[in-house]
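Objective 1b: paired records.
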Amino acid sequence: MAAVRESLYVPEFPTLYPGMLLARGAPTDFPPFAGGNSGKVHWFYFARNAVWNAVRMLGLEGREVLVPSYHHGVEIEALVHAGAKPVFYRVGRSWDVDLAEIAARIGPDTGALYLIHYAGFPGPVREFKSLAEKHGLALIEDCALSLLSSDCELKLGTVGDVGIFCLYKTLPVPNGGAMQVNGSHRHNMPRLQSPPATSVFNHTASALLKNMELRGGRAGRWSRSLLRSVARGAVRASHVERIATGTMHFDPDHVNLGISPLSLRIARAQAFADMIAVRRRNYLVLLDQTEAVCRPLFETLPDGVCPLFYPLRVKRKVELLHRLRSVGIEAIDFWNSPHPACDPRAFPETMELRRSVIEIPCHQDISAETLWRMAAIVRQAVSEIECPPSPGASLRGTS
């Protein structure tokens, strides 16, 4: 196992290459906002800020919003803080929903439907739109996990009254969320504040250091560790403001915080077609290499899907996460807790998802060589932990 730890590092998200800091791209080069929609896109520091502003923009204060029982939690906090009332609907073991059950939950106080596209896989957005129009409701399309994904030719985020996106889960940017306003109507948005430069620098430096470790092997790991220790000491000494991304809670003090110009520059300079192709390749290799030892959540990768990660469904989640992290794979415990407003006893299938799904990285920074080694490690770890083999087997054989 020691040999694997020394030579393998797979970060959760893509890293930042130094050359990306200088690259430039035109605003219209950034899908899914190309094609005349760029003037109707509002850029935020967080996607959760876009959720809060969408509630206010659509006049949903005091109204019920039907939201999925399978959620991160921060989007629910943003809805509640903005004045909306979440009412939860069922999500099944394959991220499926029941349109009839959702329709039955619509009442006189309902103001909107909220659809999450999970990990790049499209939900039934056309059906949601028809249901919303039938009842005179708004549709919020949450694409925070599905930037660059399509349902065949239909770009996600372009059907709902608004589409919500998170940039830093898919792209190597220090921050960024977006709200695309669809339809002919226009809405006034509050003037957004620039994020603290120190916070932007902190996140940018972290992404650069991860890239150093990804490309530099043992030397890169040692250098990153040293520089992180120095940086933490400097931050503590200077009391630098750092606005963390990826947190579980909505902070109303940051609701009108905008995206940094650096994030927009990096995002617009990405090679999106190549990025999607690599993510799809990586996903399909992981599917092929693990389905024999672990039944996949999805047996195919539909056209248009840009996968955020490979969803691995296991029985012994904590043990598997520990094993993978110990050998350098930043697997993530995906959404293990609901928002307090959601009664877990009412949604047993959703709770099973929370107990069993982990994220295996499949992003564009993972080379073909690293991918195959990672796939072998994941396959063997699942085999050993889910169905323990005879004594003496170990991960050492995958190095």
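Objective 1b, second protein:
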Amino acid sequence: MENYVIGKQIGQGAYALVFLGYSKEHDAKVALKIYYKEKIKDLQRKKSIRREIKIMKRINHPNIVKLYDVIETED
């Protein structure tokens, strides 16, 4: 996460928090969605999150949020 500066929290869901941030690599404001693995117990939900990430990686459209990076940690 050294390429990002994390700012204030701007959203929250059942499994994740969303923060305003800054990407040093892209010199741009970004939203950082951080999932907490300990809250995702259901196998179907894990599959759903992985599918969302896979789809977001492939999308490139000016009116849709661009996924720059996925960082997975051990915990």
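DSSP finds one helix and three strands in the chain. The chain has one domain: 4-58.
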